[in-house]
Specification:
CATH architecture: Sandwich
Number of domains: 1
Strand content: 25-35%
Radius of gyration: 18 Å
Distance between the termini: 20 Å
Protein name: Putative prolyl 4-hydroxylase alpha subunit
CATH class: Mainly Beta
Largest sheet: 9 strands, antiparallel
GO molecular function, one term: procollagen-proline 4-dioxygenase activity
Shape: globular
Organism: Aspergillus bertholletiae
Oligomer: single chain
Cofactor: L-ascorbate
Keywords: Dioxygenase, Iron, Metal-binding, Oxidoreductase
CATH topology: Jelly Rolls
CATH superfamily: q2cbj1_9rhob like domain
Length: about 250
Amino acid sequence: MNSLMQYALIPLAAVTSFWQGRTTSNVNLMACNTLNYTTEIVSLDPMAIYINGLLSGTEADYLLNLAKSQDAFVHHEDKYPEHMTETSRRIASSCHLPQEDPVVQCFLQRALNFVGFIEHDGFESLQVVKYLPGERHDPHQDWFAQPPQIAPGLTCNRAASFFVYLGDEPTGGETCFHHLNPAPLDADPTKFSNINSDDGLGIAVKPIIGNAMFWMNLHSNNTGDDRVRHSALPVKSGVKYGMNVLLKRCFSQ
């Protein structure tokens, strides 16, 4: 397994001290992975799972404050002005979290435990995304149509994704999966709604702090799965914060 995946864990008491004191000098990296989250299967094929409480409220607040403390949110179209002319636009700001932060490491270990036996080669660095009122991300997929090569004949793509909600709970800003089956009639309306589409498909997931969506991006032959195409609807009021957690898989071509 990639050495980057050997994340240590943190005792809850040490994490509490860290949150309060904002220092890592006295943090003993041991066990922090005791959070009891629950799951709801949204789709079996493609695999998509809703996760209740993947982060505690305290963890979500900490990671959001960590992102804000970087003072490094960059608007996507300032970084990539050529994307302003693309049909699918990402109108939002983002920054990356420091990999060495112990709470980041704790969360990555939890995410690693969640993916279990899925073949992978570690995570990309965690990215926090900020959507102001009116900002959005048009329909897109997380996998690369032309995945980058890291060595001759060796290519990496994004095998799976988590999107974890942080911070405020805005109105609007749902994450929509356009090709998944709609939610059943008895689904929790505080978490799910449906998309009025011509083909009857589509489900929208509402931003709730600490909850997350997980989905597989690649087929077993490492080609991208178009059925996990998704979008972020415009925020109507408030600010939406989310965290992209992207699982890599490398393979020979």
